[in-house]
Amino acid sequence: MSVARLSPRAPAVENASRQSPCPTLQTNRLVLRPQRLSDAGSIAESLSDFQVTRMLARVPAPYYKQDALEWLILRTSGTLPDWDFAITCGDDTLIGVVSIEKRHGEWHLGYWLDRNHWGKGYMTEAVEAVVKRFFEQMPGEVLYSGVFADNPASMRVQDKLGFQITGCHEAYAVARASMVTHLDTALTEAAFRAARP
Question: Tag placement on the chain: N or C end, fewer CB within 10 Å?
Fold first, then answer.
């Protein structure tokens, strides 16, 4: 839905000063757990849908299982400080991802959801749980994100959580092979608490 960070060609990130922040989180309807290599098939199936990948900055189209495996090997190696949660519902099958990565000294949120699960409020529920965990572990930090301007559903998720638009720029969307208007957003702990008391 937003600018998810799902490419083996992602930039290097800085070392984290804290232990892994990715326990299993449970919400009313979802379980968010660390991703596994066995999630490759589910990821590839979801991201082979251009309606999903067109809203993501770094995901290629077409997207193959090998792309998912390369990305998961990097993410499950334990060498990155990123927070990568698989979204599951009803069983252990991955239906989406919420991730937070540190780039250039700033924490950035990305997320996506399989199209079969759109319109049910799952994305807001999942992102809220991860953001809550983030601010518990990293008080005082600012969380950055953004959406493509033609993705109002993702903007609604961020609005509900207290994100504010901080700017706008043109970003290259790999799946679209074109430049797209991107709205930059940011969230403080205080704004999150005010939005979700």
Answer: C
Q: Are 70 and 8 in contact (CB under 8 A)?
A: yes
Interval 110-162: pLDDT, tens = 999 999 999 999 999 999 999 999 999 999 999 999 999 999 999 999 999 99
Number of domains in the chain: 1
Q: Is residue 4 part of a domain?
A: no
Task: Tell me which H or E stretch contains 18.
Answer: none
Which CATH number does the domain housing residue 108 bear? 3.40.630.30
* Long-range contacts, 59-64 (Cβ 8 Å, 24+): 59/4, 59/6, 59/7, 59/174, 59/175, 60/7, 60/174, 60/175, 61/174, 61/175, 61/176, 63/175
